[in-house]
Structure formats: structure tokens, C-alpha cells
Design a protein that fits this description.
With about 140 residues, this protein is mainly beta. The chain has a single domain (about 1-130), classed as Metal Binding Protein, Guanine Nucleotide Exchange Factor, Chain A, CATH 2.170.150.70. The protein has helices spanning about 30-35, 125-130; strands at about 1-5, 15, 20-25, 40-45, 45-50, 55-60, 65-70, 75-80, 85-90, 100-105, 120-125. The chain is globular and about 35 Å long. About 25% of the residues are buried.
């Protein structure tokens, strides 16, 4: 299934394939600084952008970059550099009706001033790195 979306001003539009409708929330310090709260994300198998010249990219670590609209500043995605996997901001999709929050990561960094009602799978930062971090040779 292909889904469409855009930034706040419309300077960046996208089509995303293979969107599972499962929303994850990241509570790490970096995501909270980037979004002003938890970072919500939906993984996509493939993404095609229109207005790509308006996308700013910030390498926030050795393994990931964050994308935003250079015109309106809207957060668009988190992308793993090694695999090219995109995690898109669910609020940028035109149709958000089928989304359900299923996962929370870096739960050990979540501040106490908010809590979600949905039952979710939860992982600490150590568990996330153990499962997803690129393996080092040596």
C-alpha cells in the first residue's frame, strides 16, 4: 500500500510504500530535543520525495540522520544510514486514521511528566542498541 504525506508548508511531499501503520515513540534525549517531546515514527519500506531540494539533513550520530523541511522546519524523518531505512513522522501523512502506537523505545530515558494510555512493547536504550546497532568487527 502506498501512502502520501507532506510537511507543514507542502514544499516537501512524499509517497511511502510498505507502511505497517504501527507507530513507535522514542523517548531518548536527542529525540526529545529534536521534537520537543517524544519522537513518533512509522517505518516505511521505500520513500520517494517531491521537493527533495527542500529537505535539510542533520547527521545526529554515526548511524542516523534526521530530515526536516528547510522552508517550514517540519520534522520529516529519521533515517538509518547503513540500511537506508526511513522512519517517517506519522503526523506528516495525509491519512493517519489507521495508525496505532505499538512500541516505545528508550523507555529508561522517558521523563515523568507524560505517560501514554496504550499498551505498548517497551525497550530500554541498552535493549535497542543490542538489537539494532551496527555490529562492530574486531
Amino acid at each position: 500500500m502506498t501512502m502520501t504525506g507532506r510537511c507543514l508548508c507542502g514544499a516537501v511531499r512524499f509517497e511511502a510504500d510498505g507502511v505497517p501503520h504501527e507507530v513507535g515513540a522514542c523517548h531518548c534525549d536527542m529525540c526529545r530535543r529534536w521534537t520537543g517531546g517524544p519522537n513518533f515514527a512509522v517505518e516505511a519500506e521505500a520513500v520517494r520525495f517531491e521537493g527533495a531540494q527542500n529537505i535539510g539533513r542533520y547527521c545526529s550520530s554515526a548511524w542516523a540522520e534526521r530530515g526536516f523541511c528547510k522552508v517550514c522546519g517540519a520534522n520529516l524523518f529519521y533515517r538509518l544510514i547503513d540500511t537506508g531505512r526511513y522512519f517517517l513522522a506519522p503526523g506528516t501523512f495525509d491519512d493517519q486514521s489507521g495508525f496505532k502506537m505499538t512500541t516505545e523505545v528508550f523507555i529508561d530515558e522517558k521523563p515523568g511528566y507524560y505517560t501514554f494510555a496504550d499498551e505498548t512493547s517497551k525497550m530500554t536504550g541498552a535493549e535497542v542498541f543490542a538489537k539494532y546497532a551496527p555490529k562492530q568487527d574486531g
